[in-house]
Write a structure and sequence with these properties.
4-stranded antiparallel sheet, 13 strands, 64% helix
Length: 616
């Protein structure tokens, strides 16, 4: 979620979808009223017909009797306690059973509506309170989260029961019939949603914060450790317990537990980028380090550590609601609260970033802060460009050599117009904070840099880098870059298997490494399904079906057997249906899983081919 949503964007993305929470209760409220009126109308029509046919009544008695029944609708009689209407009530036994159902569901729908409105008011107050101060932010989120998970469970139970009831009565009232299958499906979906919500309340998501780096023990970098301690002493804040060295395009500090390889580090952890340190002079690196230590001094990391478990639990709960099917409206409602909270969180984080910049400028200088921001931002932007360009290529790479490409091309990038767009159009990557734009950060420390100044900053050779004082720095970088580039190559290799049509034998072999031909045997001899990256064939079909021609695939039950039904576009764009009887296969689930995987590849390939043709 982005904390800088504009008002129209926030309304469109969060508020409008949240209103779906009220859709089912409002419909239930209207439908129960409609059903009650319909019931009263049918009863009155029947009574009026009987009175009209009763020859023993004179005109005055007939009008008096009609007036009585018109003044006492059947539903009111059934739900009332007037002893004078006991006989009438006793004659409406089956009608009263339906009327009581409508009354109960009306109360349930009204209760869900009131609960939703009350929850809206409460979470809105909590969301607004989060803007007051950091303590208010923490307390408001604790209150809002606990209220929402309880009311969310109540909404799931209530709306689940309401949708099952409506699945019977809507068809029964409007079409004089009902579908046991529809009721059963709604019941299963409601039960599944309720189960997932209740389990989601108590399930704790994993809190591992894994960082790809190596622990920089003091023996490997004694000068850097001593320097960091001196900076912390000047800032009057305890030094970090651990320093990690990595190759990501950022620096950060955290008090949360960090997993590095098979080790879990607790306490204060400082992450430094070896790639970035090579670009920074000592004073510029000091500005970055002082900025990060400022987060420790300002309590930013401690606040983040307290919030992180709840935010993770909330995120896990949101995913549960999203996957629950019928709980999707509750999901959108809770996402709206999370979005409002993210606005306050982003605001306080940006304020913390500016405060840390001012603190670092006081310890070093505004000029050093400005230069470090430009270098870090430019490196991050250029590296992202290099990786995006490599990943977009439609041919295999013998060696991606990202580090080498960045090093060799950085000078040309620094003199191009692209660098200014990247610096002013993006923010520095960071796993914890939402950074303000570069222009705001420069103004915050009273620094001014023209485009030519920025180019000069990026092109100046570095006279001293902290990397030169670290033992094994080059070996650490080589190991980390090797692992990163290997993963990058593997990911690109897999993506190519999704992109290729294929158009030649080499591309075919590449695709078949990831999507090999498969055979699924039938229970009877000679029956089988064959599947490859391009088509599916079935013994009972006259010819194979190309996956490109499949517009829709679904699993259906017919005559106590299970089928995989395919909607296929043939010659002249005519549509036809092909079916595979899953009940005749030894392992139907394996076929379903593989078919979905291979069909997904085919559709990805078609989309990529279409976009490539448009670009050409």
């Amino acid at each position: 979620m982005r904390p800088t949503k504009t008002a129209p964007g926030f309304l469109r993305s969060y508020v409008l979808p949240a209103l779906w929470l009220f859709a089912l209760p409002l419909f239930g409220l209207w439908f129960t009223g409609h059903a009650t009126s319909s019931l009263d109308g049918k009863v009155l029509a029947s009574i009026e017909q009987q009175i009209a046919q009763d020859t023993g009544l004179d005109e005055q008695e007939r009008e008096s009797t009609l007036a009585f029944f018109r003044a006492n609708p059947a539903s009111e009689v059934c739900l009332g306690t007037d002893e004078g209407l006991t006989n009438f009530r006793n004659n409406l036994r089956e009608v009263c059973s339906d009327a009581r159902q409508f009354g109960w569901m009306h109360s349930l729908a009204l209760g869900l509506l009131v609960l939703g409105l009350a929850t809206t008011v409460l979470v809105l107050l909590c969301g607004l309170a989060a803007f007051v101060s950091r303590p208010f932010q923490y307390v408001s989120f604790v209150v809002g989260w606990n209220v929402l998970r309880v009311t969310g469970a109540l909404q799931a139970i209530g709306q689940g029961g309401l949708v099952v009831w409506l699945s019977y009565w809507v068809t029964a009232l409007w079409f004089n019939r009902y579908s046991p299958k529809l009721i059963g499906v709604m019941g299963v979906l409601a039960a599944m949603g309720i189960f997932l919500v209740v389990v989601g309340i108590f399930r704790r998501p994993p809190m591992d914060f894994e960082v790809e780096a190596e622990v920089l023990d003091e023996s490997k970098a004694p000068e850097l450790w001593a320097h960091v301690r001196r900076l912390c002493a000047r800032l009057q804040t305890p030094p970090p317990d651990h320093i990690l060295a990595g190759i990501d395009a950022n620096f950060f500090v955290t008090e949360s537990d960090v997993r590095v390889g098979d080790r879990t580090l607790s306490g204060r952890t400082l992450y430094v980028s070896l790639s970035l340190l090579r670009l920074l002079e000592q004073s510029e690196a000091d500005a970055v380090l002082a900025h990060e230590m400022g987060h420790l001094l300002g309590g930013d990391t401690g606040h983040g550590k307290r919030l992180a478990p709840m935010l993770a639990h909330f995120g896990h709960y949101l995913q549960t609601l999203h996957d629950g099917g019928l709980t999707r409206p509750i999901y959108h409602f809770m996402v709206a609260y999370r979005g409002l909270f993210e606005l306050s969180l982003g605001r306080s984080r940006r304020a913390s970033e500016l405060a840390a910049d001012r603190l670092a400028a006081g310890l070093t200088s505004g000029r050093d802060i400005a230069r470090s921001l430009v270098k870090v931002g430019a490196y991050a932007g250029f590296r992202a460009r290099v990786e995006a360009e490599l990943f977009s290529r439609d041919e295999q790479q013998q060696s991606v050599a990202i580090a080498q490409r960045v090093a060799l091309g950085f000078a040309d990038y620094a003199q191009s117009e692209a660098v200014h767009g990247d610096l002013h159009g993006t923010v520095t990557p960071h796993p914890f904070d939402s950074h303000p734009p570069l222009s705001a950060r420069l103004e915050n420390v009273n620094a001014r840099l023209t485009p030519s100044d920025m180019a000069q900053v990026l092109l100046e050779p570095v006279t001293f880098s902290w990397v030169s004082t670290m033992q094994e720095a080059e070996a650490i970088e080589a190991r980390l870059w090797g692992a990163y580039e290997a993963r990058f190559s593997q990911a690109h290799d897999l993506v190519l298997a999704y992109r290729y049509v294929p158009s030649n034998e080499a591309e075919r072999q590449h695709v078949e490494r990831h999507f090999p031909p498969l055979t699924f045997e039938g229970k009877e001899a000679g029956l089988e399904v064959r599947l490859d990256f391009a088509q599916v064939s079935y013994t009972e079909w006259e010819e194979p079906v190309l996956l490109e021609q499949v517009t829709h695939a679904s699993k259906e039950d017919r005559m106590f057997k299970k089928y995989l039904d395919l909607q296929v576009v043939g010659a002249g764009r005519s549509k036809q249906k092909r079916s595979i009887c899953l009940s005749k296969l030894k392992d139907p689930d394996a076929l379903l899983g593989a078919f979905a995987h291979y069909l997904g590849r085919s559709r990805t390939m078609q989309e990529h081919r279409a976009s490539s043709q448009q670009a050409a």
